[in-house]
Structure to design on (314 residues):
């Protein structure tokens, strides 16, 4: 049993992580400023003596009383629509927030775990992407606020490791979906499912030939815990290597939800990566991890969640 701080613990992935940590007997202190996270994602944990929630912006000084065994830094808006809406907050939480979370881990002698991203590879020229690829990022484009903040966060994490001897883990998270996504967060999976459930047009950007590889949240979080518990220091890709075009994804969502929605085409966002697929050799070999949930099963589970959320809100 450990005492774990999760920043961004009320967010999509942070909330799944808090739940899994509590399930396995850990004590969790969840920090979130609720800018994109939601109390709804963690309300089942309120009243549990092993769970504490603190509303706090981790871009400002963090202090948590008592012993801490691990600091898991998951705070950050992560959707392309957020990159346009709240770019400065994204840069701050990736830079100042990471520095503060590292400082807390150092002060407590705790292990530090950074939620990084496949966006560090930018619009990748190497395919699939191994951890050794340095990436192809436009630093001044609209996505640069997220990509560069996370690249800085990785650099800062490794500097704390080398300079202060801090025990660190870095996960590079590829496209992940599942319950607790915001219905309006603008991602392909959430947009398509919500549009399909409402019978609205499915908005494919560009000609839909760009690719992504989608991992279901339960698989992803199982990978996080395997990495957290391992002795693997360098960045590790955790994602599902089965790759789809975005047009194929739209067709799968229509099929799985039995929707009558039609596909329409809209302009491609600036710097939208043309392809993305994780090389998960490292996770397979060092962690014995690989995803188990196929996209149709995961989309059906996510659609069931969204139907419930949309009903409740209407
Ligand atoms: N996308 C789309 N329609 C939407 C939302 C997204 O065609 O309604 C596309 C987007 O342009 C990108 C892909 O789907 O090519 C994945 O987008 P998402 O925002 O889910 O993730 P990311 O671009 O960060 O991988």
């Amino acid at each position: 049993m450990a005492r774990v701080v999760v920043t961004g613990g009320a967010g999509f992935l942070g909330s799944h992580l808090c739940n899994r940590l509590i399930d396995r007997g850990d004590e969790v202190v969840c920090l979130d400023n609720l800018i994109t996270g939601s109390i709804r994602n963690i309300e089942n944990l309120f009243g549990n003596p092993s769970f504490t929630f603190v509303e706090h912006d981790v871009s400002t000084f963090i202090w948590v009383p008592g012993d801490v065994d691990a600091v898991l830094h998951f705070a950050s808006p992560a959707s392309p629509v957020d990159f346009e809406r709240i770019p400065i907050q994204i840069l701050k939480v990736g830079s100042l927030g990471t520095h503060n979370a590292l400082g807390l881990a150092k002060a407590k002698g705790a292990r530090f775990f950074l939620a990084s991203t496949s966006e560090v590879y930018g619009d990748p020229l190497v395919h699939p992407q191994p951890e050794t690829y340095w990436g192809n990022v436009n630093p001044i484009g609209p996505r640069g606020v997220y990509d560069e903040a996370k690249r800085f966060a990785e650099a800062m994490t490794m500097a704390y490791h080398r300079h202060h001897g801090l025990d660190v883990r870095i996960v590079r998270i590829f496209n992940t979906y599942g319950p607790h996504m915001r219905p309006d967060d603008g991602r392909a999976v959430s947009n398509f499912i919500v549009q399909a459930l409402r019978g609205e047009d499915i908005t494919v950007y560009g000609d839909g030939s760009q690719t992504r590889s989608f991992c279901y949240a339960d698989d992803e979080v199982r990978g996080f815990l395997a990495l957290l518990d391992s002795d693997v220091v360098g960045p590790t890709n955790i994602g599902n290597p089965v790759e789809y075009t975005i047009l194929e994804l739209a067709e799968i969502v229509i099929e799985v939800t039995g929707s009558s929605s039609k596909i329409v085409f809209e302009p491609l966002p600036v710097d939208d990566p043309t392809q993305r697929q994780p090389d998960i050799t490292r996770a397979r070999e060092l962690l014995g991890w690989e995803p188990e949930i196929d996209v149709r099963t995961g989309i059906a589970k996510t659609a069931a969640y969204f139907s419930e959320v949309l009903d409740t809100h209407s």
